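BUG: 3D viewer hangs when loading the predicted structure for this chain

Environment: internal workstation, default settings.
Expected: structure renders.
Actual: progress bar stalls at 90%.

Input used:
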Amino acid sequence: MKHMVIKSVLMVSWLLFILIEITWGHPHVFIAQNLKIVFDEKGMTGFNVYWKFDDMFSNMICEDHDLNKNGILEKTEIASIKTKAFSYIAEFNYFIYVKIDGTPFKVQFVTDFSARLENGKLIYDFFIPCHISAAKNFKHINIASYDPNYYSTIYFTEQHPFTIENNDKFEVNALIKEDKATLIYYDMVNPWALFLDFRLK
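C-alpha coordinates produced before the viewer hung:
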Protein backbone atom coordinates (compact mmCIF):
# COMPACT_ATOMS: atom_id res chain seq x y z
CA MET A 1 0.00 0.00 0.00
CA LYS A 2 2.82 2.35 0.98
CA HIS A 3 4.56 1.59 -2.32
CA MET A 4 1.39 2.47 -4.25
CA VAL A 5 1.07 5.80 -2.39
CA ILE A 6 4.68 6.73 -3.16
CA LYS A 7 4.18 5.76 -6.79
CA SER A 8 1.01 7.89 -7.00
CA VAL A 9 2.77 10.89 -5.42
CA LEU A 10 5.65 10.57 -7.88
CA MET A 11 3.23 10.33 -10.80
CA VAL A 12 1.33 13.45 -9.67
CA SER A 13 4.61 15.32 -9.17
CA TRP A 14 5.77 14.36 -12.65
CA LEU A 15 2.48 15.48 -14.20
CA LEU A 16 2.67 18.80 -12.34
CA PHE A 17 6.23 19.30 -13.58
CA ILE A 18 5.17 18.68 -17.18
CA LEU A 19 2.19 21.02 -16.78
CA ILE A 20 4.44 23.78 -15.40
CA GLU A 21 6.95 23.26 -18.20
CA ILE A 22 4.23 23.50 -20.84
CA THR A 23 2.63 26.54 -19.22
CA TRP A 24 5.90 28.44 -18.97
CA GLY A 25 6.84 27.27 -22.44
CA HIS A 26 4.07 29.35 -24.03
CA PRO A 27 5.39 32.26 -26.10
CA HIS A 28 6.10 35.49 -24.26
CA VAL A 29 7.46 37.45 -27.23
CA PHE A 30 5.47 37.85 -30.45
CA ILE A 31 7.24 38.72 -33.71
CA ALA A 32 5.60 39.63 -37.02
CA GLN A 33 7.91 38.75 -39.90
CA ASN A 34 8.47 39.74 -43.53
CA LEU A 35 11.14 38.30 -45.79
CA LYS A 36 12.74 39.77 -48.91
CA ILE A 37 14.41 37.18 -51.12
CA VAL A 38 17.28 38.68 -53.13
CA PHE A 39 18.63 37.36 -56.44
CA ASP A 40 21.53 38.37 -58.66
CA GLU A 41 22.48 37.17 -62.16
CA LYS A 42 23.58 33.74 -60.84
CA GLY A 43 20.78 32.89 -58.46
CA MET A 44 19.73 33.56 -54.89
CA THR A 45 22.15 35.59 -52.76
CA GLY A 46 20.24 35.56 -49.49
CA PHE A 47 17.31 37.26 -47.82
CA ASN A 48 16.42 40.20 -45.63
CA VAL A 49 14.53 39.49 -42.43
CA TYR A 50 12.19 42.10 -40.94
CA TRP A 51 10.89 41.52 -37.43
CA LYS A 52 8.30 43.73 -35.70
CA PHE A 53 7.96 43.02 -31.97
CA ASP A 54 4.98 43.22 -29.64
CA ASP A 55 4.42 46.21 -27.37
CA MET A 56 5.77 44.61 -24.20
CA PHE A 57 9.09 43.52 -25.66
CA SER A 58 9.44 46.82 -27.53
CA ASN A 59 8.89 48.78 -24.32
CA MET A 60 11.40 46.64 -22.44
CA ILE A 61 14.10 47.16 -25.07
CA CYS A 62 13.40 50.91 -25.19
CA GLU A 63 13.63 51.14 -21.43
CA ASP A 64 17.01 49.39 -21.42
CA HIS A 65 18.61 50.85 -24.56
CA ASP A 66 16.98 54.16 -25.54
CA LEU A 67 19.16 55.88 -22.99
CA ASN A 68 18.18 59.47 -23.80
CA LYS A 69 14.49 58.53 -23.99
CA ASN A 70 13.92 60.41 -27.26
CA GLY A 71 12.06 57.56 -28.99
CA ILE A 72 14.81 57.26 -31.61
CA LEU A 73 17.40 54.49 -31.66
CA GLU A 74 20.76 56.04 -32.39
CA LYS A 75 23.96 54.36 -33.55
CA THR A 76 25.35 53.54 -30.11
CA GLU A 77 21.95 52.36 -28.89
CA ILE A 78 21.55 50.06 -31.90
CA ALA A 79 25.01 48.62 -31.21
CA SER A 80 23.94 47.96 -27.62
CA ILE A 81 20.75 46.22 -28.77
CA LYS A 82 22.69 44.06 -31.21
CA THR A 83 25.15 42.99 -28.52
CA LYS A 84 22.70 42.47 -25.66
CA ALA A 85 19.34 41.68 -27.27
CA PHE A 86 20.13 39.99 -30.59
CA SER A 87 23.53 38.32 -30.90
CA TYR A 88 22.75 35.68 -28.26
CA ILE A 89 20.30 33.96 -30.63
CA ALA A 90 23.24 33.04 -32.89
CA GLU A 91 23.44 29.77 -30.96
CA PHE A 92 19.87 29.09 -32.10
CA ASN A 93 20.64 29.72 -35.79
CA TYR A 94 19.21 33.25 -35.36
CA PHE A 95 15.78 31.55 -35.20
CA ILE A 96 16.06 31.00 -38.98
CA TYR A 97 16.18 27.43 -40.24
CA VAL A 98 16.95 26.93 -43.92
CA LYS A 99 16.90 23.76 -45.99
CA ILE A 100 18.28 23.58 -49.53
CA ASP A 101 16.94 20.57 -51.42
CA GLY A 102 16.24 18.99 -48.04
CA THR A 103 19.72 19.62 -46.62
CA PRO A 104 19.99 21.97 -43.60
CA PHE A 105 21.91 25.20 -44.16
CA LYS A 106 23.49 26.62 -41.01
CA VAL A 107 23.08 30.37 -40.56
CA GLN A 108 26.55 31.21 -39.27
CA PHE A 109 26.28 35.00 -39.36
CA VAL A 110 24.07 37.89 -40.41
CA THR A 111 24.95 41.25 -41.95
CA ASP A 112 23.50 44.77 -42.02
CA PHE A 113 21.75 44.52 -38.67
CA SER A 114 19.70 47.57 -37.75
CA ALA A 115 17.00 48.42 -35.24
CA ARG A 116 14.46 51.22 -35.20
CA LEU A 117 11.16 52.28 -33.68
CA GLU A 118 7.96 52.69 -35.67
CA ASN A 119 4.95 53.95 -33.72
CA GLY A 120 6.47 52.55 -30.57
CA LYS A 121 7.13 49.12 -32.08
CA LEU A 122 10.66 47.75 -32.23
CA ILE A 123 11.86 46.65 -35.68
CA TYR A 124 14.87 44.43 -36.39
CA ASP A 125 16.20 44.31 -39.95
CA PHE A 126 19.08 42.04 -41.00
CA PHE A 127 20.38 40.11 -43.99
CA ILE A 128 21.24 36.41 -44.14
CA PRO A 129 23.71 35.51 -46.91
CA CYS A 130 22.69 32.27 -48.62
CA HIS A 131 24.20 31.84 -52.09
CA ILE A 132 22.43 29.29 -54.29
CA SER A 133 23.20 29.13 -58.00
CA ALA A 134 20.27 28.52 -60.33
CA ALA A 135 20.20 25.52 -62.66
CA LYS A 136 17.88 23.99 -65.24
CA ASN A 137 16.16 21.95 -62.53
CA PHE A 138 14.32 23.57 -59.64
CA LYS A 139 16.15 24.34 -56.42
CA HIS A 140 13.87 23.78 -53.42
CA ILE A 141 14.36 26.18 -50.51
CA ASN A 142 12.56 26.05 -47.17
CA ILE A 143 12.91 29.00 -44.77
CA ALA A 144 11.29 28.34 -41.39
CA SER A 145 11.44 30.85 -38.53
CA TYR A 146 10.99 29.70 -34.96
CA ASP A 147 12.41 29.75 -31.46
CA PRO A 148 13.13 26.09 -30.60
CA ASN A 149 12.41 26.87 -26.93
CA TYR A 150 9.07 28.45 -27.92
CA TYR A 151 9.67 31.45 -25.69
CA SER A 152 9.11 33.58 -28.81
CA THR A 153 6.68 32.95 -31.63
CA ILE A 154 7.38 34.20 -35.15
CA TYR A 155 4.58 34.53 -37.66
CA PHE A 156 4.32 35.93 -41.18
CA THR A 157 2.32 39.10 -41.66
CA GLU A 158 -0.95 38.70 -43.53
CA GLN A 159 -0.15 41.47 -45.99
CA HIS A 160 3.03 41.17 -48.07
CA PRO A 161 4.65 38.41 -45.99
CA PHE A 162 7.46 38.21 -48.52
CA THR A 163 8.84 39.95 -51.59
CA ILE A 164 11.27 38.79 -54.27
CA GLU A 165 13.89 41.07 -55.82
CA ASN A 166 15.88 40.83 -59.09
CA ASN A 167 14.32 37.53 -60.17
CA ASP A 168 13.67 38.39 -63.84
CA LYS A 169 16.04 35.67 -65.12
CA PHE A 170 14.44 32.91 -63.09
CA GLU A 171 11.21 30.98 -62.82
CA VAL A 172 10.17 31.33 -59.20
CA ASN A 173 7.35 29.75 -57.20
CA ALA A 174 6.80 30.70 -53.56
CA LEU A 175 4.25 29.73 -50.94
CA ILE A 176 3.88 30.15 -47.18
CA LYS A 177 2.47 27.20 -45.29
CA GLU A 178 3.02 25.10 -42.20
CA ASP A 179 6.21 23.06 -42.23
CA LYS A 180 4.74 19.63 -41.56
CA ALA A 181 8.20 18.06 -41.50
CA THR A 182 9.20 20.08 -38.42
CA LEU A 183 7.76 19.84 -34.92
CA ILE A 184 8.56 21.99 -31.88
CA TYR A 185 7.13 22.50 -28.39
CA TYR A 186 6.70 18.88 -27.27
CA ASP A 187 6.02 17.91 -30.92
CA MET A 188 2.77 19.86 -30.85
CA VAL A 189 3.54 22.83 -33.12
CA ASN A 190 4.48 23.05 -36.79
CA PRO A 191 6.26 26.32 -37.58
CA TRP A 192 5.29 28.33 -40.65
CA ALA A 193 7.78 28.53 -43.48
CA LEU A 194 8.39 30.01 -46.90
CA PHE A 195 8.69 27.30 -49.53
CA LEU A 196 10.60 28.69 -52.52
CA ASP A 197 11.42 26.94 -55.80
CA PHE A 198 13.46 28.54 -58.56
CA ARG A 199 15.31 27.63 -61.74
CA LEU A 200 16.69 29.25 -64.88
CA LYS A 201 14.12 30.37 -67.42
